[in-house]
């Protein structure tokens, strides 16, 4: 593969303001990010990130969202920024304005449901070798140490087991009931990007092999042997892997689209494509209830789309962002 094919604007990580749905401009608070590429993987200030290519669009983004000011703030959404910074907290659909912040976190998030809104708690990568559980809206509960550092993705199955991916070497670390020291398993990938469980407890994850090929991999429940999954269409750049209630979905960061698959054996057959028009670089996406959230690393922002209809954003979040990489949604 040609690395430059994934780079829309490789020097434009800083200096451009976000244009929100309400027309106000909010600049990224970190104006000293230094970005380079190691193969296909972006590094910012020496840290690997899951964004394919940070590209700041100069075009304003608009949405037709009308805030429901009377809604009770029982639902919370988290846009998780660059490692070691913070997560921006929202209470959509009550509003599209930031209402809070969780400090000293960064990367991706997950919660205790396969899709929809999580129940009371969620997890966020919280350090070079840690991941922390929070009770909504932002009370820390438990911190786990992640062996070998560089934790990136996380996913929980229906029994509460936690899988944490390692971006630097492709490992997956499994925490039974989200506790303990974790069990490290070496995967066929050299860089693991995103992971997600299906209802049967099978773990799917994507990333790059040592040969720089984009691959989707499965660890069947109860097994210790990984198997490569062949998709019927080409995924240009690995994105979020999540069950949506019917299909296994993979977000393609390069195509600004989500692919819906049925999986049989080692083959994933494309059944539908959800367009994320108006996004630039959805790093992590989270499918909630009839909507999907996008942490848009490409323009330092976040959007909300109808799901599975896709199309243009129905809301654009307004707040402070430092290279958004992750998102998750949780209810009290």
Written overview of the protein:
The protein has 332 residues and is mainly β. It has a single domain (60-331), classed as 6 Propeller (Neuraminidase), CATH 2.120.10. 0% of the residues lie in helices and 44% in strands. It has no helices and 30 strands. It has strands spanning 18-19, 25-26, 35-38, 41-44, 47-48, 75-80, 86-90, 100-103, 109-111, 118-119, 121-127, 130-135, 139-145, 151-156, 162-166, 172-175, 183-185, 191-197, 203-208, 214-219, 227-231, 241-243, 248-252, 257-264, 267-275, 282-287, 291-296, 301-306, 315-316, 326-331. It is globular and about 50 Å long. Mean pLDDT is 86; it is low at 1-28.
Task: Tag the structure with descriptive keywords.
single chain; 332 residues; mainly beta; Neuraminidase; eight-stranded mixed sheet; five-stranded mixed sheet; 0% helix; globular; disordered N terminus
Layout of helices and strands:
Layout lengths: L17 E2 L5 E2 L8 E4 L2 E4 L2 E2 L26 E6 L5 E5 L9 E4 L5 E3 L6 E2 L1 E7 L2 E6 L3 E7 L5 E6 L5 E5 L5 E4 L7 E3 L5 E7 L5 E6 L5 E6 L7 E5 L9 E3 L4 E5 L4 E8 L2 E9 L6 E6 L3 E6 L4 E6 L8 E2 L9 E6 L1
Parallel strand pairs: 10-30, 21-25
Antiparallel strand pairs: 1-2, 3-4, 4-5, 6-7, 6-30, 7-8, 9-11, 11-12, 12-13, 14-15, 15-16, 16-17, 18-19, 19-20, 20-21, 22-23, 23-24, 24-25, 26-27, 27-28, 28-29
CATH topology, which one?
Neuraminidase
Q: What value does the Rg take, in angstroms?
A: 18 Å
Mean pLDDT: 86
What is the CATH C-level name?
Mainly Beta
State the share of residues found in helices, binned by percent.
under 10%
Shape: globular
Number of continuous helical runs: 0
Name the helix and strand elements from N-terminus to C-terminus, one letter apiece: EEEEEEEEEEEEEEEEEEEEEEEEEEEEEE
Secondary structure tally: strands = 30
Main sheet: which strands, in order across?
18-19-20-21-25-24-23-22
